[in-house]
Amino acid sequence: MKKCILIALIFVCQFSYSQENKNFAKGYEYYQAGDFKMALEYFDKSVKESSACGDCYCFNALLLARQGNINDALPLFNKAIELSPVEGAYYGDRGIVLAQLGKSKEALHDFEFAAKYDSLNPARHFNLAAYYLNQGNCQMALKYLDNCLKVDPNHLQARFKRAICFIQANRRDDAIADFTYFIEHFTDQSTALNPGDYYNLLGTIYYMRGGVYGEAGQYDKAVADLKQSIKYKQDDPDFYNNLGYYLIFTKDVQNSIQYLDQAIKMNASTQNYNSRAFAYFKLGKLKLAEADALKAKSLDVDYPESYYNLALIYNGMGNPEAACTSKKNAEKLGSTKAKELKIKGCK
């Protein structure tokens, strides 16, 4: 089970400047209220009111960056740092801009500085982890995800990403523990989601934990989680495919077909047809299994699972010659389990 781990960095600028700067104070009120257009107007005025206000430059840059004006934001972050050279928050947010500009080494320096000098802010550790996650380096990211969760155990974005890294490292028990914590503490999260994302994310958590259980051979637990997943997220064919597939390995194999039917209805893919072909094979419905496996092969002639399934099916039909041909085709395409398949007279 593979999921993309590309992750967005988080802008989190801190407010420390005196309320004596009236334009900044007004801009901050608008900022807190989510009116970024008015906030930017007053933050721009605040720079003119006090050229020594680091926060004035930082918040101005922050809003410009959020609007995509990163080239305009960078000089303002630079000015804020010039005024306060040990303010970790400024470095943390400038690092995001540098990363967006493709200046990786400079960005890494800023993220490391921010994590050191603004260490009680979990976002600083999370952003450093995100830097490595975006480079596909889970091993390095785990260190900073751990640091983030030490500061804030309910930083559920960090816990979610750590669980994915645990899956890649084949640390299934640790992944399950993080997913379980996520489910049990979802309402306590400190990194609040938009209301519309609530059910989608919770469904994804159940889906991923179910996948881990399935890969570990704990099929009843996998099925229980995957049934929960489609309660929260009903528009993803992979959810129905996984549920149908893992039902094959339980006493409830008969019910696998309804979920695999739905997966195919939503996405008539090679993978979904192969899952149903295998389910029909397990149910002894070999003609239906053959039809699905042939359909899967027609959609992608280089997909080894189709040939593996055909080898199983033809062997079950008492046609060892066709089974052997399919087995060899699967092996040519890299199927390791096809090599272990025993077919009479097939060498």
Task: Please supply descriptive tags for the structure shown above.
347 residues; mainly alpha; Serine Threonine Protein Phosphatase 5, Tetratricopeptide repeat; 19 helices; elongated
Describe this structure in words.
It is built from 19 helices and no strands. The chain has about 350 residues and is an all-alpha fold. Among the domains are: about 110 residues, Serine Threonine Protein Phosphatase 5, Tetratricopeptide repeat (Alpha Horseshoe); about 60 residues, no CATH class. The N terminus is likely disordered. It is elongated and about 85 Å long. Helices cover about 70% and strands about 0% of the residues.
Structural class: mainly alpha
| Fraction in beta strands | under 5%
SSE ordering: HHHHHHHHHHHHHHHHHHH
Outline type:
elongated
Q: For the CA atoms, what is the radius of gyration?
A: 27 Å
What is the helix fraction of residues, given as a range? over 70%
Number of helices: 19
Unreliable runs, pLDDT <50, ≥5 residues? 1-7
Largest sheet descriptor? none
CATH homologous group name of the domain at 7-118: Tetratricopeptide repeat domain
